Amino acid sequence: MAETSLLAYCRPMTQQVFSDPGALASVCRRHRIHKLSLFGSTLKGTARPDSDVDLLVEFEPDARPTLLTLARIESELAPLLNGRKADVRTARELSRYFRDEVVRTAEVQYEARRLGSPATLAAALDHDGA
User: Fold this and answer.
1) DSSP character for 4?
2) Do residues 25 and 77 make contact, with C-beta atoms less than 8 angstroms apart?
3) What are the residue ranges spanned by the domains of the chain?
4) Which residues does the UniProt record annotate as the domain Polymerase nucleotidyl transferase (predicted)?
5) Which DSSP category does 35 fall into?
6) Contact residues for 69 (Cβ-Cβ < 8 A; gap 6+)
7) Residue 77 three-state SS
8) What is the strand order of the sheet 53-59 is part of?
9) Taking 80 as the threshold, does the pLDDT of residue 23 lie above it?
């Protein structure tokens, strides 16, 4: 049976909104976030100085986040957003009228991938660095 490794990484972003990608990865790992993506006015380039930053989160399958968990995540992400407020949502919380579009167009800022073998891990690192 192949050994399973966990690779957490921050993808190159069109919108550089987080001041410290390493700290972002740490917050995501601590709260068992599988994927964190940017959507809304910040992604579209229409944000005002007082706009919050809309973030879509997908948790690990066995994670059981609560409303308090989401509030903690928002609090921990604010310093990484240069003081802007984070508005963290799951796809399930979004309106059915625009959920599919948000999920389809959101820009991934962090994603944890499970990789089978050390060779697969090395190949993923080589591919991501290209």
Assistant:
1) P
2) no
3) 21-111
4) 26-102
5) E
6) 31
7) helix
8) 5-9, 107-115, 33-39, 53-59, 86-90
9) yes
Instruction: Please tell me which residue, 125 or 93, carries the higher pLDDT value.
Output: 93
Task: Report residue 18 as tokens.
Answer: 């987080």
Sign, CA dihedral 114-72-38-10, equals negative
What is the Rg, in whole angstroms, of the alpha carbon atoms belonging to the chain? 15
Residue 35 and residue 108 in contact, taking contact as beta carbons nearer than 8 Å: yes
pTM for the whole structure? 0.75
Strands (E), the chain: 5-9, 33-39, 53-59, 86-90, 107-115
CB-based contacts of 72: which residues, under 8 Å, 6+ apart? 31
* Across 8-12, 29-33, 95-99, least confident range: 8-12
Answer yes or no: are the C-beta atoms of 8 and 112 closer than 8 Å.
Answer: yes
Of the options 3.30.110.70, 3.40.50.720, 3.50.50.60, 3.30.460.10, the CATH number for the domain spanning 21-111? 3.30.460.10
